[in-house]
Amino acid sequence: MACSGKDKVAIKNGLRLLYVAALTPCLTGNIAQKLGEDVGFTFLPSLDAITEMSFEERVEKGFNLALAGGMDGFFGLGGVLVEIGEKIKNGSGKMNLYQLLKQPRVAARFARGLIRAKKEKRHILPKDLWDLKVIVSMGTDSLVYQDRIKALWGRTPLNVYGNSETTVIATQTWDYHDMVFFPNLNFLEFIPAAERMKGQMNHFYQPKTLLLNEVKEQEVYELVITSFHGGIMVRYRLGELVRITSLRNEKLGIYLPQMVFEQWADDLIDLGFMRLTERVIGQALENAGVPYHGWMANKEIAANPRLRLYIEMQDGYGGSAKELAAAVYGEIKKLDDGLYVYKDLASLENLINFSPIEVTLLEKGIFSAYKEMMRQQGADLTELRPAHINPSEEILAKLGIDSLVSEHKAPGEWQFISR
Predict the structure, then answer these.
(1) Contact (Cβ atoms closer than 8 angstroms) between residue 161 and residue 150
(2) Residue pLDDT, tens place only, 97-135
(3) Radius of gyration, CA atoms only, the chain
(4) Which end of the chain is more exposed for a tag (fewer CB within 10 A), N or C?
(5) Which CATH class is domain 268-408?
(6) What is the residue extent of each domain of the chain?
(7) Chain segment 35-71, per-residue pLDDT in tens
(8) Nearest 10 degrees: CA dihedral of 99, 381, 294, 139?
């Protein structure tokens, strides 16, 4: 968040944070409210002013306030922070920058930023306009976007894992590596993969759990929590999987297990030799430099199980679907991700016709249209974007996608799907 080393935290009264997260009663809204009351943070726009605003209105209003009066940090979705940064970099988007430049303070901010950018012979970036001290980034895509956030905004977001049932489960420390558990907020239990599988096969089976001192490195567990601070969840399966990366952080002298959030328990695409999660696919797309507006993925059964990747590309992409699928697959194979990617895929490719990824190109604007449709239906902020992994038939229908369309197309063919 605002930590650069042990006992080095840049938090003080009066910090101004751009706010682009859900409101109360969601956890993010409650945390923001408490930060305002107890720490003295000011949010842009103010929490009182945004109750009737749409999400886009909040972003634009907060952005304008930050340009005029400055900001010290960000509180919200990592993808939104990247999107704002890219719009500034590319000088495009809905923000009316020319109108804003009529304001002296905004003009002065841009003048300073342009001087800095010209010295380095590049486009102006958000880090030229603001010197952020705090980035609170949330969502499963936070780790995927962290390098782009650093490049655009000049600061690496510190990842925190929590939810409405538990408040906070774990956080990165000042080495910005894996996360460490908070052992004093919830009593934590861990369901091993084998026990979880037994429960899936027999719904009457009660999976056995391990305690924090019994977990093993590189194993994936489903979390069970009992809150030390009360609430309606006495003992509760979160339906979320975490991977234990090590049993301690030797460098910092933290002798508690280290972890990364893996996925929702049901958000797994198992292709036999490849078990793909939202984080793995998202990281591969980013590493491959795929210029997308949005994406979804699900499992298909053809000659071999495969990943069907639905992507809405940005304007100007001229590659073929086959090239795109190959690039994503190549990046997946590079990831060192425990048991989730088979380590000898080259041998497998020599033995069988293993083509695990195919791409469907979606019509431009399809995700924006979906967001607008859901907003008009009164959907919550968290429901405005379809699930990345295994979207339901209902969601596919709302997007105008026939989930079986790929069975009738040649491998590698561009497939334009209309709304």
Answers:
(1) no
(2) 566 567 788 888 888 888 999 999 988 899 999 998 888
(3) 23
(4) C
(5) alpha beta
(6) 3-158, 161-264, 268-408
(7) 888 888 899 998 888 877 777 788 888 888 998 889 9
(8) 110
